[in-house]
């Protein structure tokens, strides 16, 4: 009697599976927004069973939060002394890495959905504004406002680079905008001069 062929199964690696799901979620949410994205779409892109999404993340709302949170990391922009903050942040904004592009798109697309907007607001405060305000701390209570300005300008700049990228013949405009924005961002890193 012939033996039945042994079915090949790929070994499960929970960490890798979760990473694939998060990556797929970032792509889908950043392209379609929260409301138009389905768990099945994300699971299909991640090449996993949709039940694994619920198992690892509990549902679409928790998945959105985890996916957006994973894109938010201010460590690279804070990796230099504050006197080089503006220059370093502009370098980060020009890097066009997947995280900054995806987070900007996810933030922008969350505006129209109450659940996604609530998550985005909380993560913007907790992961961007509060750590920046702490780094910018001064005795004049302006650190929080300056941190908000950095968030506004950085997000706006990234969204504009996605929507209206500079053309090759606009290199001089890009250089002007980058220089100006870098200087403004640098100004936000230090307390205002007392008069």
Overview of the structural elements:
This protein has 195 residues and is an all-alpha fold. The chain has 2 domains: 14-70, Arc Repressor Mutant, subunit A (Orthogonal Bundle), CATH 1.10.10; 72-188, no CATH class. Helix content is 67%, strand content 0%. It has helices spanning 14-32, 39-46, 50-57, 60-71, 85-94, 98-110, 114-135, 143-163, 171-188. Helix 1 (14-32) packs across helix 6 and helix 4 (60-71) runs parallel beside helix 7 (114-135). The longest helix has 22 residues, at 114-135. The radius of gyration is 21 Å and the shape is elongated.
Q: Which word captures the global form?
A: elongated
- H and E string: HHHHHHHHH
Could you state the oligomeric state of the chains shown?
Answer: single chain
Number of DSSP E strands: 0
**What's the main sheet like?**
none
Topology:
Layout: H1 14-32, H2 39-46, H3 50-57, H4 60-71, H5 85-94, H6 98-110, H7 114-135, H8 143-163, H9 171-188
